[in-house]
Amino acid sequence: MNNRLMRQIGNFYQKQHRKIQIFNQRIKNLFRTDNFQHYKIFKFLLGLIAGVTTATVIAIYLTGRVTPSTNTSTAPTANTYTAPSINTSTAPSSNTSTAPNINTNTTPSINTDTAPATSIKTASTTNAYTTSWLGNTFGGGDKWVQIQVSGIYVAPDGTVYTNSPWDEAAREVGIYKDGDAIGKADDLHGWGRGGGSAIAVDQKYMYVAMGQSPEGKAGEDYPPKGTNWYCVRRYKLSGKPAPFPGGRGWDKSMLIVSTKDKVTGLAVSDGRLYVSDKAAGQVRVYDTATMKELRKFAVSNPGNIAIDKQKNLWIIQNKNGKAPAKIVHYSPTGKQLPGAIADIGEPTAIAVDNQGRLLVADNGPRQQVLIYDIKSKPKQVGTFGTKGGIYADKPGEIGALKFYGLSGIGTDAAGNIYISNDGFNRSGVDLRKFSPSGQLQWQLLGLQFVDNADADPSTDGVDVFTKDEHFVMDYSKGSGKEWQYKGYTLDKFRYPSDGRLHTMPTAPFVRRIQGKRLMYISSEMMSERLLTYRFDGEIAVPCGIFGKGKEKWLADEPTKGSWIWVDVNGDGSPQAKEYQATGEKDDTVWGWEIDSKGDVWQAAEAGYIKHYRFQGLNAHGCPRYSRTAVEKIPMPKPFKVLTRIKYFPEQDVMYLSGYTSDRPNIDGDWGLAGTEVVRYDNWSKGKNRNPSLRIVLPYNPSLNPKLHIKAIDIAGNRLFAADSKHANVFIYDTTTGKLVQQLKPGPEVAGETGWVDIPYGVRAFRRSNGEYLVFVEEVHKAKVIMYRLPA
Asked: Are residues 740 and 674 in the same domain?
C-alpha cells in the first residue's frame, strides 16, 4: 500500500476515531451473556462507516492498536503461581495519598509550542526500571492466553483447542498443550471475520464455528450487504485454512450453515461432522472430506454435542423460554433415543471420557462437572469439582477444584480432565488440566481485558486488585512471577444486581477509609458511572452507585438527572427507598476521584466540579453519600474543558487536567486527559484558585497514530501520564514540572503493548522502600503491565 493511500486512510481514521472506539466498546459489552450475537458487531460497524471501504479501516484499526516489538528477545517462562509466604494482615502501612512538597512559584520548563514526538529526551537523572506484568501466564510475543474461551476440544494426546468470538490479539482459536501456548488458527480477525463458541477436531482437520460479515474486499467471495454468514471453517491442524471444493469465502474454506444465527455446537466422528444450527432448530450432518451435507434432523435450540463410544450423540438442548435446558440423546442418523437428562441447572459443555461416561459442565449455582453413567438409562454417578465452585468454603478464594463460569470441558485418552472457566460477564480465561484423580497439573490464565490494577494502600502494595481479581504480590520474584491469583471478587449468585455483571467495568480505585478496604470502579470506557463496593472476605459486595438516568438492569431508580444509591439494608441490591436524586444529569464526566478521606469528586466537561463529602460508614460498612452534602464548584482558570481530577486532602492540593485556551483540543478528539495538568494549592480555601504549576502534556494530533495522553495519576512527587496509542508513560516531577523519564515496554513483554483505552489506564503507587509501581492497561494480550522504578 503506498504512502499516499496510507495517509488518506489515516486521515479518515482520525475523523472516525470516536465511532470506532464506540464500536470497540460495543464489542466488549456484547460479550456479557451466552445469548451474545457476535455478528451484530459487524452490522454495527457497517452502519457506522457505510459508504467507505470499511475493511481497510478495520485493518488499520486492528494493526494500529499494537505497538510493535523492536526487541526479538524470548519472553520469560510462564508464571508457576507459587504463593508467596506473606502475611497480608501485618504488611507495613503506606499512605499513597501524600502529595509532594510543592514549590508554588515554579513554572514548567517545557517548550509549550511544539508537542513532543513519541520519543522524548529525558533528564540524565532517570532511574533504570524493569517491565513486569500480571494477569496472564505469558508476557507476550508469540505466547499469551486469549481473553475469552467459549468452547474447547481436547484431543486424545492432550492438545487443547479453544474457540471464542473475539481476541484482541487475534487468538480467537488458541492451541495449548502441556501448559504452553503452542499455536492458533489464522485469519479469524479483521476483514469481517471472527471466531465462535464451538470447535471440533479429528486426525486431519480443525472445524471452527465462526462468522463472516460483508466487510471484505470487492470482487472476492463475501456476504452481500446486510447479510452475515454463520459458518464452519475447516483448518489444518497447523492452524492454516483448509479449502475444499465448493467452499466459500475468500479462500474457499468456509461452509455456510446459516445466515440467521451462530453455530452453537460441533462434533466429529468417523468422517461425519455434526453441526448445531440454532436458527433452524436442526443438527446438520456433513461429510468431512467433501463438506457436503448428508442429512439433517430436528432438535429444538441445539447446543454443544458429544459423541459416545456407541457413536450416538448427546446434545445440549438449551433453555427456550420457560422450558429448562436438558441433554437429549440421538443416533447418528437422527433417531431420538431414550435417556434424556433433565436435572441440570445450566449445562454449558459436555464431553465423553475414556471410561465412556458423560461429563456435563453445570454453570448454575453448583459450578460443578456432573458425571453420568450412560451405558443404559443415564445415572449420575459422581461430580468433579467443589460444590458451589468459587463460592464454596471461603467465597471468592481461588482453589484448584473451585470453578467459576464453566465454558468448556474435555478429556484425553489417559483420562485427564480439562476445564475452561470464563468467569461471569466475560471476566477472563482460567484453563486447567487435572489428573484422573483430580490433581491440578497446570493452569493457564488470561484474566485482564479493558482493565487496570490498583494497590491497597494499607499493605504496601502486597494486595493488588483489578476489577474482578485479587492478587497477592511477592516483589522478590522476577518479572511476571511476582503475582499469585488469590481471589475472584464477583459473586453472581448472591449479588445478581452487581454492576459488573451488567455494564463494562474498567479500572478500580482501592481505598482504606476508617480502616476498611473499599473499592470504587469506573464503569464503561466513557466513565458513565461509579460503582462502590465493600469487602466480605474476598467478595466485593455492591454498596453504592453514582449513576444517571434509567438503567435497564436496575429498577426504581430516578429516571431523570443524576442519582446516588447507597445500600442501606446491606443486601447488595438496590431498592426504591435507597436512591437519592441529586439534580441535573451529569453528562460527559470523564474525571472521577476518591480521595484518602473518602470524598468523591467529579470533573465534568460541561465546566464544573462536583464534590460529594464522605458521610461515614453505615452499619454494614458501606460508604454514605448524600445529596445534601455536595458542593458544585465552577471550573477554575485556565481551563476550557475539564477531563481528570486528583485531590490530596492532607496537603489541600488539587490537580486538574483538560484543555486550556493556550492549548485547546485541536481536532475535537474525545475521552483524553487533555493538554495540560494544573496544580492548585490551598484548594479548600476557595479563593484565588490560581495555578501554582502548569505541566504541558505531550500532544500532537497530526501524527498517525496521534500522540495524546489518555490517563494520568500521581504518587509521591511524580506525575505519570500514559499515551493512548503508543502506551508510553511520561513521568514529570511535580515540584518542577519537568519531564524526568519515559517508560516503554521492555523485552520481558516482547517490547509490545496495546492502546490505553480507558480513562484510568495508568495507576501509580509508591511503596515504603521508595519503589514506584506503575500499572498500565494492556488491552492487547490480556494482562496489566507493571513497571517497577527503584527509589
From this structure: yes
State yes or no: pLDDT of 37 exceeds 90: no
Q: Which residue blocks in 431-493 are alpha helix, DSSP H?
A: none
Partners of residue 521 on adjacent β-strands: 508, 531
As a whole number, mean pLDDT of residues 673-695 equals 94
Q: How far is 385 from 404, CA to CA, in rounded Å?
A: 10
Question: Which CATH number fits the domain that encloses residue 548?
Answer: 2.130.10.10
**Domain-located, residue 596:** yes
Q: Which of 233, 236, 224 is nearest to 252 (CA)?
A: 233
Shared domain check, 326 and 238: yes
Q: How many CB atoms lie within 10 A of CB 399?
A: 14
Query: In terms of residue numbers, what domain contains 767?
Result: 104-136+449-789
Beta carbons of 257 and 265 less than 8 angstroms apart: no
* Same domain, residue pair 372 and 489: no
Q: What pLDDT score does 544 carry?
A: 98
d(CA 760, CA 590): 10
Inside any domain, residue 79: no
Asked if residue 355 is part of any domain, the answer here is yes
Note the pLDDT of residue 126. Answer: 57
Grid coordinates standing for 545? 452507585
Please compute the mean of the pLDDT values over residues 298-312 and round it to a whole number: 97
* Nearest C-alpha neighbor of 683 from the set 646, 712, 638: 646
pLDDT of residue 748: 97
Q: 3-state class of 453 per DSSP?
A: coil
**Percent of the chain scoring above 90 in pLDDT:** 79
Per residue in 269-288, pLDDT tens?
Answer: 999 999 999 999 999 999 99
Which residues contact residue 652 at a Cβ distance below 8 angstroms, ignoring those fewer than 6 apart?
681, 682, 683, 684, 685
- Which CATH number does the domain housing residue 382 bear? 2.120.10.30
* Predicted confidence band of residue 721 (pLDDT cuts 50, 70, 90): very high
Q: Which of 547, 473, 469, 476 is nearest to 510 (CA)?
A: 469
Which of 417, 439, 461 corresponds to the end of one domain?
Answer: 439
Task: Write out pLDDT tens, residues 134-144.
Answer: 999 999 999 99
Q: Does pLDDT of 212 surpass 60?
A: yes
